[in-house]
Amino acid sequence: MRLAPLASTLAVAVLVAACGRFGGSEPVRGGVAPLQPQPIAPVAAQPLPPPVVAPVTPVAPAPVDTAALTPNEPTAATAVEIRKPDLSGGWKLASAGENCQLFMNLTSWTGGYRANTRGCASDELKSIGAWDLDGKQVVLKDASGSVVATLYASAATRFSGQTAISKRGIQVFR
Fold first, then answer.
1. DSSP letter for each residue of 58-114
2. How far is CA 143 from CA 10, 117, 130, 140, 163, in A?
3. More confident residue, 88 or 59
4. Which residue range(s) make up the domain with 165?
5. Does residue 17 form part of some domain?
6. What is the reported pLDDT for 78?
7. Total structural domains in the chain?
8. pTM higher than 0.90
C-alpha cells in the first residue's frame, strides 16, 4: 500500500524532468543552436552632397469662379431638405478666414447630438460640442446647449449661416 504514493511521486518526477531541456552549458531552443554574433564593420561618416534643386517654372493660377464659392445665403424657404444621418461624419468648417474641421455624429447628448471641432483657433468655434436639426436649420451648440451658430443647406454637402456671438459668417462643407 505504500507503493502507490511512491509510484505516483516517481511518475510526477519523471514528467517534470521530461519537461526540462538539457543542452549542456547553453540552452537549445527548438532543437536549433543559437547563432553566434557576427563582427560589425565600422561605420564610415562623411558629409552628404548638397541637394539637387530643379528649376521651377511658375504657373499662372487658374481663374476662380467666385460666384460658385460664395452662393447666396440660404434661408428657411430656399434651404435644401436634409436628414440627421446626412450630417453625420467629418466636415470642413470656415469662418472669418479660419479653417478647421467639424465632426458630427448621432450620439445623443446635451442639446441634441455630439459634435466637436479640431484645429479651430477661435474660442467660439472651439466651444462646439453638440448639434441638432430644427426643420431645415442646423444648430451648432456648446456643451451647455447654448447656440454657437445656425446654418441652412445651400446644397446637400454645403451649409452657410452665422455664428451667434460674433455674428461672423460660417460655412460647413464636404
1. --PPPP--HHHHSPPPP-TTTPPP--HHHH-EEEEEEETTEEEEEEEEEEEETTEEE
2. 71, 12, 6, 10, 16
3. 88
4. 73-173
5. no
6. 85
7. 1
8. no
Phi-psi bin for 148: left (phi > 0), alpha (psi -120 to 50), beta?
alpha
Q: Which of 130, 135, 160 is nearest to 147 (CA)?
A: 130
Q: Which residues of 19-55 are buried (b: 16+ CB within 10 A; e: fewer)?
A: eeeeeeeeeeeeeeeeeeeeeeeeeeeeeeeeeeeee
1-40: per-residue pLDDT in tens? 566 666 677 776 666 666 555 545 555 556 777 888 877 7
Cβ-proximal residues to 120 (8 Å cutoff; 6+ apart), any chain: 93, 98, 100, 126, 128
What is the bridge-based pairing of β-strands 169-173 and 89-95?
antiparallel
As to burial, measured by CB atoms within 10 angstroms (0-12 exposed, 13-18 middle, 19+ buried), residue 159 is buried
CB 151 within 8 A of CB 138: yes
Based on its alpha-carbon atoms, the radius of gyration of the chain, rounded to whole angstroms, reads 34
Residue 34: phi, psi to the nearest 5? -65, 150
Whether residue 46 is contained in a domain is answered as no
Does a structural domain hold residue 160?
Answer: yes
